[in-house]
Amino acid sequence: MLIYWLMFWFPFIGTITPRKMVGTQSAVIFILVCAAFAIVIGLRDAVGGDWPNYLPMFNYYSTENFTEILDSTDPGYALLNWSVERVGGGIYAVNLACAVLMMLGVCRFCLSLPDPWLALLVAVPYMLIVVGMGYTRQAVALGAVMYGLAYLGQGRTLPFVLCVVFGGTFHHSAVLLVPVAGLATSKNRIWTATWVALAFAAAYFVLLQPESENLWKNYVTDQGTFSSGAVQRALMNAVPAVLLLVLRKRFAQELQVRRLWIIFCWLALACLPFISLASTAVDRMGLYLLPLQLFVFSRMPDLTKQVVGRTAIVAGVVAYYGIVQYVWLNYAVMRNFWVPYGFMPFSD
Questions:
Q1: Peptide bond just before 340 cis, omega within 30 deg
Q2: Residue range 260-290, pLDDT digits in tens
Q3: What is the pLDDT of residue 45?
Q4: Which among 81, 161, 232, 268 could bridge 241 via Cys, Cβ 3.0 to 4.6 Å?
Q5: What are the distances in angstroms from CA 200 to CA 69, 157, 192, 263?
Q6: Cα(257)–Cα(320) distance, rounded to whole angstroms?
Q7: What is the pTM of this model?
Q8: Full 3-state SS string of 127-170
Q9: What is the pLDDT of residue 274?
Q10: Percent of the chain with pLDDT over 90
């Protein structure tokens, strides 16, 4: 369990000492920490609830021909497995590549925020430990979405759509985020909404539509499918959503940024009434709303200019996510899949 608390400790140190480092120096150290996280996530051994599923997938994709790979459900992930096997690699190389792709998005997104270290700390307990080490394919999709969100916050719609579609090749559910680009834009809205709608239709037809029936059956109509902790995770997104809606002008002055995150707020709140109907579907889609927590809580210290007030807010955020991590590691139903942590270089 020590490795998980070290992951929490590094951004905590960065959070309380950012003003003592030059901007470039701080960014370099931040990138190195993200790289270390990628290694910890990627070279895990027998860690994560979906771990038993990935080795059979690797063996399956490695025997397919190139045409069948491109025609698979998640062609990006299938192609990665196929390519790694062709150069003599194994499942650990696949996981490491996926971890790097995820952390690229997390790193890029955090560096676009006023306090990257606090944002990274917020990401550790659930986004990095649970999602990064448990949902390999969707972790890449989430990282791609986050990389794109950094562009969309700048009003750059096309890079966002391309990032989301790339993420959709690893987990097809990501394509449902494409319409956000059309809704969030504040310039050339009719033209942007038109081409974004066409891009969404194309991505949906190629990546999501072939699996839509199975997804609906597995995540919605199958009454035996229930995601433990879905309510708590939805509430974790709902809290920052309410904070941002109430204080939206203080969180973001720029219209483009404010429009984008207000959309995320309403999506987070819309998840709540549907949990009892399709908890797993809501839970999985809620993963793409996790960046809302990073955005809101990393900006909260800026709500006041008083040193005492800023310190109290930072302490509150750190304590809150420290408790989240402690509770999850010690009492979560699925904790045994993460504890103890196994590292590939030291495995038998």
A1: yes
A2: 999 999 999 999 998 877 777 888 899 999 9
A3: 94
A4: 268
A5: 22, 13, 12, 17
A6: 26
A7: 0.93
A8: HHHHHHHHCHHHHHHHHHHHHHHHHHCCCCHHHHHHHHHHHHCC
A9: 86
A10: 64
